[in-house]
Amino acid sequence: MNDPVSGIALAVVIAGLALSTLVTRTSFLVAGSRLRLGHRAEVALRYAPVCTLAAIIVPDVLFHGGAALDVSPFNPRLLGALASGAWLCWSRNIVGCLATGMCAYTLARLYL
Predict the structure, then answer these.
(1) Measuring CA to CA, which of 32, 45, 70, 85 is 20 to 30 A from 78?
(2) In this structure, how many other beta carbons lie within 10 angstroms of the beta carbon of residue 103?
(3) CA proximity to 27, closest of 19, 17, 16, 38
């Protein structure tokens, strides 16, 4: 059915991925100041890291273990994420946010 890629095909895949990564990541460096994005696009790109992080973290928090959606108060990952978010909104301190989230997650995991 799905045979692993090997030999020449693997080399072509690696070279293609390397080339596409090189082109997409260096295009802005090569273009320099000649290529300017619009103001709206620059403002929208400021939110790209946050959106990417949310897209990675939210499914892991809400669907842990590969099960169905778990928003119960017994989900330790959800409790850790909520505690972390509350701390960040209150203090704007990222180190405290990480520490609070991990402590809440650990306590919930151990005692729930």
Answers:
(1) 45
(2) 14
(3) 19
